[in-house]
Design goal:
355 residues, two-stranded antiparallel sheet, 35% helix, alpha/beta, 10 helices
């Protein structure tokens, strides 16, 4: 098994809106008990509910190791504010933050803000790419040792180690520097669903984790290879991308047989491939896809979070651990360490205009 890349597992903990923080903290702790890489919390301007990023900032002190990845919508929002909020989540979690970048396409959502009309998806995903670029530049605008904190001498910052982002694109103009020091991870992890164009191009250019929705391992491997090829064209090392198959799972009847082949499984209204069966069959499916080299892991969305996540952790994950396919402890403390990703160097540390 030594030739296999490490298996990565993540889970969604959202569902019908809940306003009790203990609910989300309990689910995150359950996922942490299974040593999952991270949990996501979906969000959208199209439905009511608490803000995902704020919720996971509340969950952070109640967890110790698991990564926390809220959905961050780049449409109708300002990248300066978003990057500050994600950096803050990284600080309060001790380096476990990420952002699941998404866009807002509907006229109804645009009317909530009243600043612009709805735009085509291609335009919005180009804007999302700009927002990701701005965020990374702002996270780098403080060097790691920019803070002096010399109360006696009256110096809090080394101004030679603060930098302007000076970004100007089609959608944003951002001067910087950030108002939050560089996050513990350098750059919190960026997640993009790269199943379809034009999101795939943004994923190839900016994402650390790319989600793909495919009914067969061959289809998933094809999307993964395309994303890696595009990443290389942008000068990135394609080996640093983690590609996870996105799967909605219904483990309500543990004794029932799974759908006969994921290719024929019923889709769930835009939420990707649907799996219905037991925890053991799910472990077999994950094992098969991973051994085939189709993906680096899975992002699982439980249909019923309280019920299905428990069966994923105590059934599916436990079996994968028994097979020595998945770790039994966290080897590091940050989300980047869970994913085997290096901490990015600061682009401004040796050059660039200073404040």
């Amino acid at each position: 098994m030594s030739h296999l890349r490490p298996l990565h597992l993540a889970a969604e903990i959202g569902g019908p809106p809940r306003y009790d923080p203990a609910h989300y903290t309990g689910l995150a702790r359950l996922a942490e008990r299974g040593t999952l890489d991270f949990v996501t919390l979906g969000d959208s301007f199209a439905r009511p509910g608490p803000d995902a990023l704020a919720v996971l900032s509340r969950v952070a002190p109640g967890t110790r190791r698991i990564g926390l990845v809220p959905t961050v919508t780049t449409t109708h929002t300002e990248p300066f504010h978003v990057s500050s909020a994600v950096a803050t989540l990284d600080w309060v979690s001790g380096g476990r933050a990420g952002q699941w970048v998404d866009v807002s396409t509907t006229a109804a959502e645009a009317r909530l803000f009243g600043r612009r009309a709805a735009a085509p998806a291609a335009e919005l995903w180009r804007e999302a790419g700009e927002a990701a670029d701005v965020g990374a530049r702002l996270w780098d605008s403080w060097e790691d040792d920019a803070e002096i904190r010399d109360a006696a001498g009256g110096r809090f910052l080394d101004r030679d180690k603060l930098h302007y982002a000076d970004f100007e694109g089609a959608a944003f103009r951002v001067r910087g520097p950030a108002i939050v020091p560089r996050p513990p991870q350098g750059h919190p992890v960026t997640v993009v669903d790269g199943t379809a164009d034009p999101a795939r191009e943004t994923a190839a250019r900016h994402a650390d984790v790319v989600l793909v929705r495919a009914g067969t391992p061959e289809r998933a491997a094809g999307i993964r290879d395309d994303v890696r090829r595009r990443a290389a064209a942008h000068g990135r090392d394609p080996g640093t991308l983690r590609v996870l198959a996105a799967l909605s799972v219904d483990l309500g009847d543990a004794e029932s047989a799974p759908e006969p082949g994921l290719a024929s499984g019923p889709p769930l209204a835009g939420h990707g491939t649907y799996y219905r069966g037991g925890p053991v069959d799910l472990a077999d499916l994950i094992t098969q896809w991973h051994r085939a080299g189709a993906v680096d892991g899975f992002h699982l969305t439980p249909i019923t979070p309280e019920r299905d996540l428990e069966r994923i952790v105590n059934g599916t994950v436990a079996l994968l651990q028994h097979r020595s396919l998945f770790r039994t402890f966290y080897p590091g403390g940050t989300l980047r360490e869970h994913l085997g990703l290096a901490r990015p160097a600061n682009r401004y540390a040796r050059q660039g205009e200073r404040v």
